[in-house]
Amino acid sequence: MARCAGTECRRWLPDVLIRTGRAGLRLDGSWYCSPACLKDALRRRLRREPGAARRTVSPLSPIKLGVLLLVSQSTLTPTLLSEALDEQKRTGLKIGAQLERMGLVTPQEVLRALAAQAGVSYLTSVDTEPLTHAPGNLSRSAVQALGLVPIEVVEPQQIIKVACTAPLPRVALGALRELTGWIVQPYLVSDQLWPALVASYGTARPAGQPAAGTRVRDLGDAAQRIAQLARRDPSVHMSHVRWDPYVWMRVQSRQQVEDLVLPLTEPTEDESWAAEPTSH
Q: In this predicted structure, what is the pLDDT of residue 237?
């Protein structure tokens, strides 16, 4: 006889029913009699986390970016920078966009300064055709949640190159590294180029090939999806990483890998795990 791994469940079933897959489901070697018990286990598992990493990244202040540009661009003087900062308070534009509007710097000069501050490389253009084949096999949901578009995968060295906008999303980069185990190399791109990269990613997946993941509404929705996968393959196991405002679950079996992106919603009695203190 086997007992459901749900702590509040006392259901027992003969081993033969479980081994043949005729009842319940398995995740990470544990048997659950229903998606409801799996949902409870997922909630406890997430609650045991030391805390969700904050996704918010402090942007480079207008003055610091201005100083970087001032040092690198001979055409930008302290007086012009001061004027741009005053005008930027009125327009609400980013200081880089403000300097561009005033004709004091080029978009490439702003991008180069942002990349220099972040200590990464930058790209002024990206061939979108390879992106249509979804390098890295992420889902559109994961791409949008992370704010990262994989642009190239180097299989032998286990390197995944990604495009992103400033400020550098370091926590999202860490999440991608933790879930995949690969080396992540970021490249900054402009805000103007970014939408085209996101729109192109994964649009040429072969007919019948599902996206590598989906955005789920809540923990119950995630449990139902994991249960569907687990019923097809008892070898399913799950890893996850939390960062505000998402939980990224990677569900793997012998046949496939699927990413589930779960938004951290306002705390409720049912989803109280989302209200735990966060730390970086």
A: 87
**DSSP label at residue 246:** E
Count of CB atoms situated within 10 Å of the CB of 56: 13
- In which order are the strands placed within the sheet that holds 257-263? 213-215, 257-263, 246-252, 237-243
Count of C-beta atoms within a 10 Å radius of residue 47: 11
Determine phi and psi for 118, rounding to 5 degrees.
Answer: -85, -15
User: How many other C-beta atoms lie within 10 A of the C-beta of residue 137?
Assistant: 19
**Which domain-ending residue is among 165, 200, 235?**
200
What does the alpha-carbon distance between residue 265 and residue 33 come to, in Å, rounded to a whole number? 27
List the helix and strand counts (H, then E) for the chain: 10, 12
Cβ-contact 250, 238 below 8 angstroms: yes
Confidence at residue 105, expressed as pLDDT on a 0 to 100 scale = 85
Q: Is residue 205 part of a domain?
A: no
Read off the pLDDT of residues 125-157 as tens digits, 9 standing for 90 and up. Answer: 999 999 999 898 887 878 888 899 999 999 889
Domain assignment of residue 239, given as a range:
2-52+212-275
Cβ proximity of 231 and 20 under 8 Å:
no
